């Protein structure tokens, strides 16, 4: 086994790392404090080709792979998670369903702008009353002639209300299966469609520079041709999308955890206490050593899951392990980094304050830690 990155992947990582430090870091705190979406940063990420990383060139992508996306997410999250989750959701949840399941016509219409970063897309899965129980979907879509009529609501949807949001793919009940279960399908709803309402942005604990809204559909009509993939395959579609997305979230979590190490090392060298830098004290050294160990092992976990995915091997269990472990250590490292910074760690001017606020959602979004444990146990035959 060789865990070293290829020259191409290493060059990408260094490029994104420089971008995060030189372009994102100087301005993101103000966006975070004001709860504003960083359009200029997104525009520059689009010019860098980050939104098209794992897509073929024929669709306007960069011809890379999913692992390249993960590397970019890790480096962005070392500085800020709002920017990282904007990219992750735009690719894994926004463009990927169109690429995986869309018709040639749908791909030609939507992918060029999504892969260039000119437009974003949301993934309408979670509902106010369902959470982890995605099978409990209540949003309904009825075929009326050559149109789908959609009624229902979605909650906590990322990239769904920006000025550049082009569409949201919505899971809805479209009928009943022979065994009596709900028939779930996925339908593309373009922004601005009558009956499609985007609520004001949430007041969130973290990810304050990312875009998150509740969506409602009131007799919202879209063409029958907006069905994404095969009718009745919506459940299978979003399971595949979430399996892949867990690797990306793991990479993001590793980035946050590593960012906590970066900031703690820097602070420990600068902060003086009792006549010397606090980094000279073993109590601080051991905390940071444990943080680095956790980030390193979590990185290996998501690298393994990504390698299995790209090799065409089963990766569901490994993706769940990576997401579970990485999100757990992200919370751990954020807590320890805050402790190392003392009172300054409680001040928003310090990055670790953002890291602490941003870390908890990683144990919840795109499958809670409890769901990851269920997936792992079932894959073991339990």
Automatic annotation (TrEMBL):
Boundaries of every Acyl-CoA oxidase/dehydrogenase middle domain copy: 123-220
Positions in coiled-coil regions: none
Signal peptide: none
Residue ranges constituting the Acyl-CoA dehydrogenase/oxidase C-terminal domain according to the UniProt record: 232-380
Superkingdom of the source species: Bacteria
Limits of the Acyl-CoA dehydrogenase/oxidase N-terminal domain: 6-118
Pfam families for the chain: Acyl-CoA_dh_1 (PF00441), Acyl-CoA_dh_M (PF02770), Acyl-CoA_dh_N (PF02771)
Cofactor(s) this protein cannot do without: FAD
Alphabetical UniProt keywords: FAD, Flavoprotein, Oxidoreductase
Protein family: Belongs to the acyl-CoA dehydrogenase family.
Protein name, per record: Acyl-CoA dehydrogenase family protein
Organism annotation: Micromonospora humidisoli
């Amino acid at each position: 086994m060789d865990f070293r990155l290829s020259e191409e992947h290493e060059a990408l990582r260094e490029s994104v790392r420089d971008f995060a430090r030189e372009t994102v870091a100087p301005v993101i705190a103000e966006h975070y404090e004001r709860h504003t979406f960083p359009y200029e940063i997104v525009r520059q990420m689009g010019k860098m080709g980050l939104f098209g990383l794992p897509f073929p060139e024929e669709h306007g992508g960069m011809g890379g792979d999913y692992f390249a996306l993960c590397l970019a997410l890790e480096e962005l999250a070392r500085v800020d998670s709002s920017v990282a989750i904007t990219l992750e959701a735009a690719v894994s949840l926004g463009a990927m369903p169109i690429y995986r399941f869309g018709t040639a016509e749908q791909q030609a219409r939507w992918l060029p702008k999504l892969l260039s970063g000119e437009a974003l897309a949301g993934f309408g899965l979670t509902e106010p009353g369902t959470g982890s129980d995605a099978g409990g979907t209540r949003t309904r879509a009825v075929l009326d002639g050559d149109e789908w009529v959609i009624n229902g609501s979605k909650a906590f949807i990322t990239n769904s209300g920006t000025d550049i949001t082009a569409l949201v793919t919505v899971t809805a009940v479209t009928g009943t299966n022979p065994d009596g279960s709900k028939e779930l399908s996925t339908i593309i709803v373009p922004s601005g469609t009558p009956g499609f309402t985007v609520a004001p942005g949430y007041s969130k604990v973290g990810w304050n520079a990312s875009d998150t809204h509740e969506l409602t559909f009131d007799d919202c009509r879209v063409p029958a041709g907006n069905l994404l993939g095969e009718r009745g395959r919506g459940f299978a579609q979003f399971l595949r999308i979430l399996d892949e997305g867990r690797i990306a979230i793991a990479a993001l979590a590793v980035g946050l955890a590593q960012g906590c190490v970066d900031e703690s090392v820097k602070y420990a060298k600068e902060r003086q206490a009792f006549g010397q830098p606090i980094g000279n004290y073993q109590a601080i050294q051991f905390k940071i050593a444990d943080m680095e160990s956790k980030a390193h092992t979590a990185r290996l976990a998501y690298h393994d899951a990504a390698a299995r995915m790209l090799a065409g091997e089963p990766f569901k269990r490994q993706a769940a392990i990576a997401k579970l472990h990485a999100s757990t250590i992200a919370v751990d490292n954020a807590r320890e980094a805050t402790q190392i910074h003392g009172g300054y760690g409680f001040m928003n001017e310090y990055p670790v304050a953002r890291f602490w606020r941003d870390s908890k959602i990683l144990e919840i979004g795109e499958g809670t830690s409890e769901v990851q444990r269920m997936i792992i146990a079932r894959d073991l035959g339990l």
